[in-house]
Amino acid sequence: LTAAGMELVFNPHGRKLTKPETVDLLRDADGVLAGTESLDREVLSQLPRLKVISRVGTAVDNVDCEYAKERGIPVFNTPDGPTHGVAELALGGLLSLLRRIPQSDASVRRGEFVKPMGRLLRGKTVAIIGLGRIGKALVRLMQPFAVKVIAVDPVQDEAFAQQHGIRYVHLEEALLEADVISLNLSGSTKTALLGAPEFAKMKPGALLINAA
Questions:
Q1: 19-77 is classed in which CATH architecture?
Q2: In the CATH scheme, what is the code of domain 83-210?
Q3: In terms of pTM, does the model score above 0.85?
Q4: Please, are residues 148 and 124 in contact by the beta-carbon 8 Å criterion?
């Protein structure tokens, strides 16, 4: 971008921006490589120079796409950009919970060399809710652990499922069977899949990884 003569401005806060911070940072911007900060009508209406939005990630639910369309601002995403990073994060969270790594770390830092009893991932039933790019990447990462994978997704990739020994099930069946549930789909409070009734159906001691 620099070679193309563009001036780059970076997020100086090292975290997700608030709406006022977003407006201040982008007020004179022609384009934005967006994270998860809100780019709703309130924010976009204060960015008169903005000509393009490119979301670093798959979901664009933080962008008011209808208003952007009204303004003639194209909105792009990068569906493959975060795939492997998010899948690795999901696996890392899963192993941390099963092996109780945070508790071990805290114990060592207190000078108490206690060894919390963890659990193996090997042989567990893992339910992938949302078997898209990230869900499939997570399946590949878990192959050495000999897990049983079940999946919930309205769009079923039968070829991938057959290749990796995955069985598609309904959500309720996944909740009842899984030792681990990994959420790997985009959503919002309007489309929440899991609430008190769903948690009540999960196995005692089941783990939930939210990588959505």
A1: 3-Layer(aba) Sandwich (3.40)
A2: 3.40.50.720
A3: no
A4: yes
